[in-house]
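User: Thanks for the earlier help. One more: Circularly permuted type 2 ATP-grasp protein. Can you show the sequence and predicted structure together?

Assistant: Of course, both are below.
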Amino acid sequence: MSTAQQSQFPYYDAQSFYDEMFEKDCSIRPHYRNVHRLFNRLQPAELVHREQAIHKRMLEEGITFTISHESQQDALERTIPFDYIPRVIPRHEWELVERGVQQRTKALNAFLHDVYHTGRIIADGVIPRKMIVSNTYFRPEMAGLHVPGGVYITASGIDLIRDEHGGYYVLEDNLRSPSGFSYLFKGRTLMSELFHDLYLSSSVQSVDRSLNSFLSSLRQLSPNGNRDPLIVLLTPGVYNSAYYEHAFLAQQMGIHLVEGRDLVYKDHKIYLREMRGLRQVDVIYRRIDDYYLDPLSFHPDSLLGVPGLMNAYRAGNVAIANAPGTGVADDKAIYAYVPDMIRYYLNEEPILHNVPTYILTRKEEMDYVLDHLHELVVKETSLSGGYGMLIGPTASEKERKAFAEAIKKEPGRYIAQKTMKLSRAPVMVDGLMTPRHIDLRAFALMGADTHVIPGGLTRVAMQEGSLVVNSSQGGGVKDTWVLNQ
């Protein structure tokens, strides 16, 4: 009888999916032995007790996320599901991921500078011009504009999956204002406290210095070389689904948490209103979309942004992270060209590969996709968070037909991808181990160097058989441990 079968937890056979903890024969992968040993020893009642302790802590600290429903009035705020069986990644695997993420973000940053300046990649025919200028997130206002330090994407979240053989693939790039940092750091705090002995005995790479790296990256953006810059985090406010994260990051990095009404434009500069008067702001880490950033430049009815902000930005008196217009590089159609960007700008072969992707403006690829909708995943290029997506193998005939009509009407609005067999990891449900599909959001912080936070955030599809891991769609998270050895 195998080790897994002897466990007090009736687990599953590792069939056609790659399992993070178990080999095909249900033996334990070497880097998981310490974790499995502890969870195999604990009684179900103790596991339920620890789960309740975690949930209580999350409620007390307000670690919440808003799940969207069809009606905004039905939106539900709740604690994000947190599974306490950590995901474990051996050091050699993480080193590959780290190098791949650094390579990818470097190429994407070079692409952003290029498309807003000389446009060499377009002139050389690597990417069609129409795909850039018709992109929802392309901002003509950024053309020719100097970006402090040449850094467009201070913070990025690169979503990775593993196929049935355990190979890593990039699923998508999140470059506008990626979320999930707070769940990464709070998850580590909870695990190191509630599973203290396991954590200490596992020799896990620390994430403690990553917040300092984040702050350092923001400080380096200061346009006037101020050694003690005033940095603010611009939030849409308390009703935003990720407000907890905004407050957490501001508090942890020691920067000001502000809304648009707290800032004022004057003499081509941005100032923070304080009791003592106005203080000039050097760097804005914004967590609102371009569209709402400045009502004088973008959406005139926006009450979230700062009138005149883009004027101050163009004058070089304030830095914005991430830079406006970065969304053109994380559009799902542009994603298909990132391997070409890596070869073009860096003269290197991609370390991390894309999921095979179909561009539907190419007639032969659109025809293939329409004939194989039942096998593919279709995504709306400008949406994120699991919205505007069709998972062909599990969709109804009615849903596939509706997507087929939408694709025929606006093929440039969609891409299609091969349905990947996402890897699985064990989660604890009512004291029993059970498999769920996962992905990995790797966070990169770009400054003088690019720091990739060890482990990133593992996201979990909490519903059995589901491939949707997004928090806004009911997904959960795990702490991710990168081993030192």
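User: Great, one quick takeaway?

Assistant: The first strand starts at residue 64 and ends at 67.
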